[in-house]
Specification:
Pfam families: XdhC_C, XdhC_CoxI. With about 300 residues, the protein is of the alpha/beta class. It is built from eight helices and 14 strands.
Length: about 300
């Protein structure tokens, strides 16, 4: 599920009011792009619109809206000349309550099954309902129309599918990092279904071959088992599929080369090895502590995600 959407749904279902902040328009070198979201509740903040003075002022306005309760929607332009001359951001403020839960839940359900939606919010008439409709294309965008004024945005869950196989210290540490990251993960190991309090974007599974068979095209795979023969046995079907966007095996480059040799002996075409990274994690980090390695792998996955998006 899209992170901010799940958080908002949980807040409203609990009976709490919240202000949904959206960067409706970014001018010049604004710190965040149009469509960036932040949630301001009475006792917490979720997300960020770039920090600094802009965020401080926005949170103050949102908290005032929560206290007063008489301003449901607001558009405001903020100059950013102090940080970046000529830059500005137009922020949309929406005060939401349990009465907004139906459209939030509908949008969340659509996003959960991969349906792209257009959310339309009117700021000329603050009582006008939020509209949810089908999107013509699967690409997130956010547009502020001066007539109305009207905010339209395409909401699509573009989280990257990620399959983590194994439950060693590094895999566990990585799973713990995933909650705020743009991945939709399947964690495959016998113990995964028994681990409590998994991040909302992590689904446990216990059968690796079935998970690999069910994976979508362009998925990422991280093999973090404690068995090199098992790694090779899993790499074989992953690479034979021919549609993996990124594959890494936890361990040394030497282990990777041994796996490559065994795969070649098994008849894997060398051209199918292209998605296989030299090693798991970014280069230049010598510390092998599980938490450090997990952060290194997360950075590598984010880099691979950007490369895939830019290529598309």
């Amino acid at each position: 599920m899209i992170g901010w959407l799940g958080e908002l749904q949980a807040l409203l279902a609990h009976g709490d009011a919240a202000v949904l902040l959206t960067v409706a328009r970014a001018e010049g070198d604004a710190p965040r792009h149009a469509g960036t979201k932040m949630i301001v509740a009475r006792d917490r903040l979720v997300g960020s619109i770039g920090g600094g003075g802009l965020e401080v002022r926005a949170v103050e306005i949102a908290r005032q809206m929560l206290r007063d309760g008489d301003t449901p929607r607001l558009l405001q332009r903020f100059g950013l000349d102090d940080a970046s001359p000529g830059s500005a951001a137009v922020l949309a403020f929406e005060r939401l309550s349990v009465a907004d839960l139906p459209w939030v839940s509908r949008l969340a359900k659509r996003a959960a099954v991969g349906t792209a939606s257009v959310r339309t919010v009117g700021f000329g008439d603050p009582t006008a309902p939020v509209l949810i409709s089908d999107a013509e294309r699967r690409r997130a965008d956010c547009l502020l129309w001066d007539a109305g004024p009207l905010l339209t945005e395409t909401i699509v869950d573009d989280s990257q599918p990620l399959y983590i196989v194994g439950a060693g210290p590094v895999a566990r540490a990585l799973v713990g990092l995933l909650a705020p990251l743009p991945f939709k993960a399947v964690w495959v190991d016998d113990v995964a279904p028994t681990v409590p309090d998994l991040p909302p974007n992590v689904q446990p599974a216990s059968k690796p071959m079935q998970a690999i068979g069910d994976a979508p095209a362009d998925a990422f795979y991280l093999l973090a088992t404690d068995s090199e023969p098992l790694d090779v046995a899993l790499l074989d079907p992953i690479l034979r599929r021919g549609d993996a966007a990124f594959v890494a095996v936890l361990g040394t480059p030497a282990k990777r080369r041994r796996c490559e040799m065994q795969l070649a002996s098994a008849g894997i075409d060398p051209g199918r090895l292209a998605p296989l990274a030299e090693s798991a994690g970014i280069a230049g980090i010598a510390d092998g502590a599980p938490a450090v390695m997990a952060i290194s792998v997360a950075a590598q996955l984010l880099r691979a995600r950007d490369a895939l998006r830019n290529a598309g």
